[in-house]
Amino acid sequence: MTEIAFQDAYPEDLSHCYGCGRHNPQGHQLKSFWDGEETVAEFQPEPQHTAVPGFVYGGLIASLIDCHGTGSASAAAYRAEGRALGSEPPLRFVTASLHVDFLRPTPLGPVLKLRGTIEEVKERKVVVAMTVSANDQVCATGRVVAVRLPAAMA
Ligand SMILES: CCCCCCCCCCCC(=O)SCCNC(=O)CCNC(=O)[C@H](O)C(C)(C)COP(=O)(O)OP(=O)(O)OC[C@H]1O[C@@H](n2cnc3c(N)ncnc32)[C@H](O)[C@@H]1OP(=O)(O)O
């Protein structure tokens, strides 16, 4: 794994995201890293993330997939250009499409482990496929189409 989380390399003014911004104390503050050619992240759900008692709320899982996907997209774009994570100019991505399949109920208790595979890297678009596992069992899969940050959001 790399030492620095992808999200910790985001510019100051792009670090307020609810899912992954380090400057959002009420957000999830998700941290993603390389693990070889794949990307990984972990998240510990809390009781407020309940759907049915004992099980994780699906919206939280979607949020984790969203931010692990866009973070992975940024890191993949840097890697494709042979640049250091966070180097200027920043390679910023937002979610164009977020697809989630809930394969089985996700138990509330164990740490959730996300694993991403980079499916496609183009100059303006990166596609990332993901799994979310609890107790080494895949509970959800996801796919994010990430597109370079539009001027309207910069
Ligand atoms: C340093 C890091 C900091 C990173 C700092 C940010 C971190 C926070 C990230 C949090 C994640 C979020 O929640 S972001 C918030 C939620 N997302 C948004 O609000 C985005 C709103 N949507 C938009 O602004 C726009 O629709 C865009 C930018 C997504 C797309 O703009 P566009 O101008 O229409 O794009 P366009 O050129 O047509 O398409 C480019 C490519 O993407 C594909 N594409 C476009 N839309 C879709 C779609 N819905 N589903 C599938 N594919 C799509 C096209 O087919 C094309 O592929 P091809 O033909 O080239 O193959």
From TrEMBL:
Species: Pararhodospirillum photometricum DSM 122
The record ties this protein, via Pfam families, to:
4HBT
Its family?
Belongs to the THEM4/THEM5 thioesterase family.
Any one GO MF annotation of this record: thiolester hydrolase activity
Identify this protein by name.
Acyl-coenzyme A thioesterase THEM4
The cellular location(s) given in this protein's UniProt record come to:
Cell projection, Ruffle membrane; Cytoplasm; Membrane
UniProt-listed Enzyme Commission number(s): 3.1.2.2
Annotated ranges, domain Thioesterase = 54-138
Q: What topology does it adopt in the membrane? A: Peripheral membrane protein
